[in-house]
Prior knowledge:
The protein is an all-beta fold. It has no helices and four strands.
Amino acid sequence: MSPISYTPVEELKPDQHQVNLKVKVIAQIILGEVDDYSQINILQPNAMVLIHNARVEMYRGFMRIVADQNINAEIKPVKDNWIMINDIEDDDGLDSGHE
C-alpha cells in the first residue's frame, strides 16, 4: 500500500476529484443551536483534520470542498508541541519550490 499524498490547498483546481487534504482548524463559528449531542467540541482551534476522497466544486465563483458519503475524515486532537509547516519561518536561504 503506497503512502497517501496530500494536495496543498493552493494547488486545488475546480471540479477536482479524489482530493486528500491536511487542514488546520483556525476558529469555531457556531451556527444554530448546540445540544448535548453536538459534535462541536471535536473541531477545536489548532486541531488537524485529514480529509480523504473529497471533491472540489465551484459555487458563486468560489471553490468549496465537498464532504459527501464518499469522504473519509480523521480528526487529530490538538497537541501543544505541534509545529505546522506554514508556521515556520523559512530562513535557511534554500528554495522550497513555493512562491
